[in-house]
Amino acid sequence: MKERIYITTTLPYVNADPHIGFALEAVQADACARWHRGSGREVFFNTGTDEHGQKIWKKAQELGKDPQEYSNEAVIHFEALKGKLNLSYDNFIRTTGHAHVAAAQEFWRRCDKSGDIYKKKYQLKYCVGCELEKSASELVGGRCPIHPHMELELIDEENYFFKFSKYQDQLLELYKNDDFVLPESRRNEVRNFASQGLNDFSISRLAEKMPWGIAVPGEEAILPAGRQVMYVWFDALVNYVSAIGWPERMEEFEKWWPVIQFAGKDNTRQQAAMWQAMLLSAGLSPSRQIVIHGFITSGGAKMSKSAGNVIDPIAIVDEYGTDALRYYLLSAVSPFEDSDFTMEKFKESYNGNLANGLGNLVSRIMKMSEVYQVSSQLTEVRLQSIPPEYQCAMESYRYNDAMDVIWENIRDADLRITETEPFKLVKTDAEAGKKIITELVHALAEIAYLLTPFMPSTAEAIQNAIKENRLPSPLFVRK
Ligand SMILES: [Zn+2]
């Protein structure tokens, strides 16, 4: 039986257009999915949108729209990423979908049955940007450090709470697995967080104040004014199980669970602690692995409209092409740490590595191959073996390191052409010249194979050029 791999991104809120940080996450998850499929594993790759909560409710109100109508329009920008970023996902889940809503309600019932849900009157400071409560120690100058431009809201109501505190020991046990949260720094962070003791968190809102959420089961009989809806995180996290059929299609669920989750560093606690405790409470096994990426800054600063340093992934794709952005996100951006992204650096890398480096190598080799009828005589171009450093990097999500291996191959092939000059040699010693050109075509085929998870269209264009023995049209035009 084929090994099965279930991969998911987090679900972005639909209240703003897709940003470069989510493009990074989607492309990382896609490279992972393509790598596993190419290695003969069966893959289910999930992504989608988070459509409930105060942030979306407010945005819809500002626009004078019904929140569902607003979400239906906004989701189009996220669905468009499939084409723009060439994502190979199998499922796009929307948290307003019927099956997900029913799953979130069943999940609630399971946690309730475990005795983990209770009602409490409380007060707290809430960041609508994060859709999270903020303790005093998390604030900088009285504000959320991720959303310093937003006023914190004061919530003073009676809500349902989840017994997070009950799961401290089980979570700490989970973090003993070195691979459960990557990188190590994030695993240490969440372990420290859990070892300090966990505070139960609120999992509902008074519908009177914020109605845009899934109805809490059993609240139907209560007068509308006192009804509660689910806290957006409780609902949204459940998507990782509802996406694969839980609780209706258990055979499908068991086929895929547990999941490998890609998430940003602002999601570490929610994914690696809150969600894992919720799973334990509902009687489900924890996730398989949580892979955390950093933030992308621009010119050393946080991106913001007012600073004018926002990097728009769609604009880059429209100007430079999908694979150019995928290449940069997976090679120049760190898979785990914060990274800086400026258009100057992007353009420099595009011209130097893609237009000149890879693009030139493909034309040099395929031109010789075309003229001397080399690749048309190859019966099969098969990869001898995958470089172990590449394989190891791919399995541990170090996409930049895997790309370095490919770039070594590109440099080696370039050097070989310069040193042996097969285009001259073939005129004096046809056999020796053709032999070198043949080896170069094989090297190019290997490069194309290794590039597949990163730059699928480019890899395919190279493979087709080899198959048809022709010089392809330029892969990357100099900008
Ligand atoms: Zn915030």
UniProtKB/TrEMBL annotation:
Work out whether the entry's keyword set contains Aminoacyl-tRNA synthetase.
Answer: yes
Instruction: Provide the E.C. number(s) assigned to this enzyme.
Output: 6.1.1.10
Keywords associated with the record: Aminoacyl-tRNA synthetase, ATP-binding, Ligase, Nucleotide-binding, Protein biosynthesis
Superkingdom is Bacteria
Any Pfam family from its record, for instance, is tRNA-synt_1g
> What molecular function terms (GO) are annotated for this protein?
ATP binding; methionine-tRNA ligase activity
- Which CDD domains does the annotation name? MetRS_core
Read off the SUPFAM superfamilies from this record: Anticodon-binding domain of a subclass of class I aminoacyl-tRNA synthetases, Nucleotidylyl transferase
Enzyme class per UniProt = ligase
* Gene Ontology terms: biological process: methionyl-tRNA aminoacylation
- Residue ranges of domain Methionyl/Leucyl tRNA synthetase in the record: 138-366
The answer to keyword Hydrolase applying to this record is no
Q: What does this protein do?
A: Is required not only for elongation of protein synthesis but also for the initiation of all mRNA translation through initiator tRNA(fMet) aminoacylation.
Record PANTHER family: METHIONINE--TRNA LIGASE, MITOCHONDRIAL (PTHR43326:SF1), METHIONYL-TRNA SYNTHETASE (PTHR43326)
Similarity field: Belongs to the class-I aminoacyl-tRNA synthetase family.
This chain's protein is named Methionine--tRNA ligase
Question: What's the source species for this entry?
Answer: Candidatus Vogelbacteria bacterium RIFOXYD1_FULL_51_18
